[in-house]
Amino acid sequence: MVLNNIEKLLEKYENGETTLKEEQQLKHYFSQETVAPHLEVYKPMFAYFLVNKQEQFTKDIPLKTKRTFNYKWISVAAVAVLMLGFYFNQPDNSCEEDLLGTFCEPEQALNEVTRSLAMISSHFNKGASTVNYLNEVNKGTATLGYLNEIENTTSIIFKN
Amino acid sequence: MTQIEFLNIVMPFKDKVFRLAKRLLVSREEAEDATQEVLLRLWNNKKKIQEYKNVEAFSMTMTKNFCFDKLKSKQAQNLKIVHSNYEDGNTPLQKQIELNDSVDWVSKIIEELPEQQKMIIQLRDIEEYDFDEIAKMLDMNNTAVRVNLSRARKTIREKLTNTHNYGVK
C-alpha cells in the first residue's frame, strides 16, 4: 500500500536515513491535495521546502573588471622616460661653428691645431731664451768662488 | 576569465548561496548583501577558481563563514532584533489560510533551530545536496550530519504537531 510505504519512508526520513530519491517521493506525495489525515502535520513542512526552493537572488552582481593596477608598468615607464632623456640629451653630430674651438672640417682643425702649437712653441722658445740670463748669474757666482779662494789664503796667512 | 565565463560558473548556484544566507541571516536585504559579497569575492579571486575542485561547495562554505562573521559582529553590537516570539492566536478559517499559516510556522520553527541544524535542513531538504557534499561544506563528518539532520527533522515535526493540535487537544 502506498500509505504504508510513505509511513515507512517518513520514519526513515526522521532518522536521516532516506536517500535523495526517497525524499523526492515524500515531497511528491505531500504536494498532493489530499493527504492521509494523520499525516497532515507533515504537509506544511514539505510545502515550505518546495516553496523555499523557488526563492531567487534577483539583485544583480556588480562585476567590475577591477583594473588591477600593475606596479611593474611603473618601472617600465620610468625606464622609457630615462631612455628618452638620454636620447634627447645626446650631443648631436651636427656641427656648430659658433661653439668655441670647434671645427667642422678635420683639415681645418688640423691646421688650426698646428698653428696654435707653433705659436705655443715660438712663445716658449722666447721665454726659454730669457731664462738664459740666469746663466750669467751662474757665471757671476762662479767668479764669486774666487773670493772664497782669497779668504782661504788670508785665513792661512793669519793663522801663521 | 571573462565575465560571461564567470557567470556561467556562478549562475547555477547563486540562488542556493542566497537561500543559505537568508536562512542564517533571516533578513532578505542582509542575505542579498551577503550573496553579493560572496560572489564578488569569488570574482576577485577568479584566477584561483580553476584550482578549486568544487566551486559550488567552496562557495557554500564561504557563505556559511561569511554569515557567521556577520552574526557575530551583530551580536557584538547587541542589535539583534528578535521577532520570533510573535504568536498568532487566530483560528484559521480556510484551509488555504491554514496551510499558509502552517508554512509560516515551519519557517519560524526552523529559525529557532541551532545554526548547525538550520544549515543542514537548508542544504538537505531544500537544496537537496547529498550527505558527502554537506559534510564537506560544513566541515563535519558524515554521521554528524545525519544525526543533526535527524534531530532537526524531529524537532520540526514535534513542534508542528504541537501547533497543529493547538486548540484541538
Structure description:
The complex is a heterodimer of chains A (160) and B (169). Chain A has a domain at 2-54. Chain A is 68% helix and 0% strand. Chain A is built from six helices and no strands. The N and C termini of chain A lie far apart (172 Å). Residues 85-92 of chain B have low confidence and may be disordered. Chain B is built from seven helices and no strands. Chain B folds into two domains: 1-81, RNA polymerase sigma factor, region 2, helix turn helix motif (Rna Polymerase Sigma Factor, Chain: A, Orthogonal Bundle); 91-169, Arc Repressor Mutant, subunit A, CATH 1.10.10. Chain B starts with a helix and ends in a 5-residue tail after the last helix. Chain B has 169 residues and is mainly alpha-helical. The interface between A and B is medium-sized, with 28 and 40 residues. Chain B: InterPro entries: RNA_pol_sigma-70-like, RNA_pol_sigma-70_dom, RNA_pol_sigma70_r2, RNA_pol_sigma70_r4_t2, RNA_pol_sigma_r2, RNA_pol_sigma_r3/r4-like, WH-like_DNA-bd_sf. Chain B: Keywords: DNA-binding, Sigma factor, Transcription, Transcription regulation. Chain B: Residues 106-155 form the RNA polymerase sigma factor 70 region 4 type domain.
Mean pLDDT of chain B equals 80
Number of helices of chain A: 6
Multimer state: heterodimer
**Under the CATH scheme, which architecture of the largest domain in chain B would be assigned?**
Orthogonal Bundle
Q: What would you call the structural class of chain A?
A: mainly alpha
Most residues in contact: chain pair:
A-B, 28 and 40 residues
Shape of chain B: globular
Structural category of chain B: mainly alpha
How many beta-strand runs of chain B? 0
Pfam family, one (chain B): Sigma70_r2
Organism (chain B): Flavivirga jejuensis
Protein name (chain B): RNA polymerase sigma factor
Family (chain B): Belongs to the sigma-70 factor family. ECF subfamily.
